[in-house]
Design a protein that fits this description.
Shape: globular
Oligomer: single chain
CATH class of the largest domain: Mainly Beta
Order of helices and strands: HHHHEEEEEEEHHH
Strand content: 15-25%
CATH topology of the largest domain: Immunoglobulin-like
CATH architecture of the largest domain: Sandwich
Number of helices: 7
Number of strands: 7
Structural class: alpha+beta
Length: 207
């Protein structure tokens, strides 16, 4: 997740800086975060501390609105749990990767640094899917209108994103956050898909 957010252009030099600076001395994990932070200019230490020192994982709820011809993506986070509804409330700095499910391409990256945040994208016609590439360690829930649009485009997504939608959909059912019909709608959209984007037949377990 961190590598996807920072990008290989920052990660490799960051590792080189870390190894060079501590080649003949003891080191800690914090030194690695500091080296990556210096190379990327992004708050790596703050992000990493949330994910390594807190239990659990977040649920990010995604809502979209069209304002003046631009799409506003509203994000809200809370702690996700399927079995412990009274678990302590926690927050993370969440690296979010957003993609257009209608026209999959390079994702837009955004850092959710508080309970709520938003990012504005240029095209209201985009069908927003979060956790592009399934690299993030968080669950995603979509507002009903966005979910209805998303499941129509699931067949055109890369396999990792198809599986991500299915996994998150079932997790929402297990947590009693959405009805099972939402998950079944995703499965129905994939039911007639016989061949993956690479031409290989999909495993029945995947469908």
């Amino acid at each position: 997740m961190l590598e996807d957010y920072l990008g290989p252009v920052c990660v490799s030099p960051g590792h080189h800086r870390y190894l060079s600076e501590h080649a003949f001395s003891n080191t800690t994990t914090a030194d690695l975060w500091e080296a990556l932070e210096k190379e990327s200019g992004k708050p790596v230490s703050a992000i990493a501390s949330d994910w390594t020192e807190q239990p659990g994982l977040p649920l990010v709820t995604v809502k979209t609105d069209c304002e003046n011809g631009r799409q506003v993506v509203s994000l809200k986070q809370e702690r996700f749990t399927a079995q412990y509804p009274d678990a302590d409330a926690l927050e993370w700095e969440v690296p979010i990767a957003l993609m257009d499910a209608a026209h999959p391409a390079a994702p837009t990256h955004f850092l959710l640094q508080s309970k709520k945040g938003s990012v504005t994208l240029p095209d209201c016609r985009s069908v927003i899917k979060a956790n592009a590439g399934d690299t993030g360690y968080y669950r995603v829930a979509y507002e009903p209108a966005l979910f209805a649009r998303l499941h129509k485009f699931i067949n055109g997504l890369p396999p990792a994103d198809q599986l991500n939608l299915l996994n998150d959909g079932w997790a929402m059912v297990e947590a009693n956050r959405t009805p099972a019909t939402n998950y079944l709608a995703l499965v129905e959209s994939l039911r007639r898909e016989k061949v993956s984007r690479s031409g290989a037949r999909l495993s029945p377990r995947f469908i």
